Amino acid sequence: MKKILVIEGTEETRNLFLKAIRLQGFSTIGAKNGLIGLQKAKEYLPDLIICEIVLPELDGYSILTELRQNSSTAIIPLIFVTVKNTRSDIRKGIELGADDYLTKPCTLEELLRAIATCLEKRATLQQWYGAKSQSDIEPLPTDTDTTIGQAICHSMFPSDPQLIKVFQKVFHFIEANYHQPITLSEVAQEVAYNPAYLTNLVRRQTGKTLQGWIIERRMAAARSLLLLTSDRVEDIAAQIGYQNVVHFFRQFRQHHGTTPQAWRKAQLDQEK
């Protein structure tokens, strides 16, 4: 039986939500303030959370931020059902990673539809990505650098098996498109995540930004092209997605401590 946690400061509203949800066959947990709600979320790991933003002790935004920073609660769906109804309120909630946002007053039918939709989406994602171990990760194509699919991929993927497939899909997208400009929105769209949420998730799980992933891949390609071809550095920069050669020089120096030309010469001299 799926568990749903309701974090709501008004007792009458909380009890109304809990009763309606129980009648749909769910197990329910109630919390009267944000601090208790956060504690119960970590203790019971519910399948879904209904949360007001305006709460005693700890507000809904803080709850969601804390949940998304904890690997055991990061992917629990959360629906805000709240009195905060301005465009900026809604935008902030979605950017923090809320799965849906209902403003009060809302009907029980609207709430139950949102719950059903959210749980269906989660089930679809679980079936699609699968909660599999690292050994289930598909090999990545490595046409220009044989280490990129192993050293970089395995060092960056999260230990949480439920996130492995998401990160794998992101990496495959970068692998297929690193040679051209890539925007954060394009990467997020590939995995059906909110861009801000995906950015925060990647940083928390890997210690690197999405841009860091892209740069790592481009640097690996640059090293291979510098060693295996006689192409000019300017042409190599264009081949790996840099529209500005100065930008390429700057990032290469940051990663290797020298210029592309000097790095190429040093590597070739070692082979003599």
Comma- or semicolon-separated keywords:
13 helices; 272 residues; alpha/beta
Q: How do the strands and helices of this protein lay out in sequence?
A:
Elements: E1 3-7, H1 11-22, E2 27-31, H2 34-44, E3 48-51, H3 60-68, E4 78-82, H4 87-96, E5 100-103, H5 108-129, H6 148-156, H7 161-177, H8 184-190, H9 195-206, H10 210-228, H11 233-239, H12 245-256, H13 260-271
Parallel strand pairs: 1-2, 1-3, 3-4, 4-5
Helix pairs in contact: 2-3, 10-13
Quick gist of this model?
The chain has helices spanning 11-22, 34-44, 60-68, 87-96, 108-129, 148-156, 161-177, 184-190, 195-206, 210-228, 233-239, 245-256, 260-271, and strands spanning 3-7, 27-31, 48-51, 78-82, 100-103. By secondary structure, it is of the alpha/beta class. It has a five-stranded parallel β-sheet, sandwiched between helices.
